[in-house]
Design a protein that fits this description.
- By secondary structure, this protein is an alpha+beta fold.
- Helices cover about 55% and strands about 5% of the residues.
- The chain has a 4-stranded mixed β-sheet with strand order 3-1-2-4.
- The two termini are about 25 Å apart.
- It binds zinc ion.
- Zinc ion binds near residues 8, 11, 55 and 59.
């Protein structure tokens, strides 16, 4: 998958959608239904742009930019929720194997996104916690790289691989 690059219209800061595949996917399902589904924001940029929090500088995010990874784009929870709810309904009604698999992968994060935490199993909660730690390490790697601290970046990367491996082992078996 490509980085799905975005940028700030005002200051040019780079953003990407790598960490919000779920959110973008639910918006697409809500807008277009399940037929011809694909990941990423291509073709639904205008709708996605309307739902994003502004850049730290106050500028609006717009699609496009170079392929280098940027900061994580952030959805406005309130703006997103109605579409996310609709998208999850669409996904829940799908029996196409690729989408069924996607539903399993997304289930825990989607329920949390929709505020349905009471439906999460203990496994779901553990999965979310691990994902959060992985995201935290990814941010640490980026910060260290940006600060030119290659040693700290390597260290965080090693922990990321270690945690990622145990995560994969734990959840691949389900
Ligand atoms: Zn900006």
């Amino acid at each position: 998958m490509t980085a799905d690059p975005w940028h700030c219209e005002a200051c040019g800061a780079r953003y990407d959608m790598a960490s919000c595949t779920l959110e973008v996917g639910l918006v697409r399902l809500a807008l277009e239904g399940p037929d011809g589904f694909r990941l990423g924001s291509t073709g639904i940029e205008a709708e996605v742009a309307r739902l994003l929090e502004p850049c730290a500088c106050g500028g609006r995010l717009a699609p496009g930019g170079n392929e280098q990874l940027g900061s994580d784009a952030v959805f406005s929870a309130d703006a997103l929720r109605p579409l996310a709810r609709r998208g999850w309904e669409v996904l829940t009604g799908c029996d196409e194997p690729g989408l069924v698999r996607l539903r399993e992968v997304w289930r825990a994060r989607a329920l949390r996104l929709l505020g349905r935490d009471e439906e999460l199993s203990n496994d779901d909660v553990l999965e979310l916690r691990l994902e959060q730690r992985l995201a935290g390490l990814r941010a640490e790697i980026d910060r260290a790289r940006a600060a030119g601290d290659e040693d700290a970046a390597q260290m965080a990367h090693a922990r990321y691989i270690e945690l990622g491996t145990s995560y994969a082992r734990r959840f691949a078996a389900r």
